[in-house]
Specification:
Blueprint (H helix, E strand, L loop, with lengths): L1 E6 L2 E4 L4 E9 L6 E7 L6 E7 L5 E3 L7 E6 L4 E6 L8 E8 L15 E2 L3 E6 L1
Parallel strand pairs: 2-11
Antiparallel strand pairs: 1-3, 3-8, 4-5, 4-9, 5-6, 7-8, 9-10, 9-11
Amino acid sequence: QVQLVESGGGLVQAGGSLRLSCAASGRTFSTYAMGWFRQAPGKSREFVARIRWRPGTTAYADSVKGRFTISSDNAKNTVFLQMNSLKPEDTAVYYCASQTYSSSYSYTDDAAYHYWGQGTQVTVSS
């Protein structure tokens, strides 16, 4: 089992920045990749970003490319999401997810991930 705990959410004005963290514990030695998803009210959960644990390659949704950066501290089993130039449409609950092995599902599909955090609210005011 892997436990994921997100932190760093909050209220910020448009154009501002936030940094989310996700700390993993438990059977973290088997981590293959970690990702961030978000879910806005009345919408489906959507892919935001993903990082392969080794070699650290990253991928982003088009909507956040150039504004968000995903990174990891493998020694601390922690993944981060630096969010800059935030927009009101970025408002959502942000979830951290862990992948313990490569899946037949695309990494943009939440079915590819095996463990999820409880989520952290990000609200961007206009």
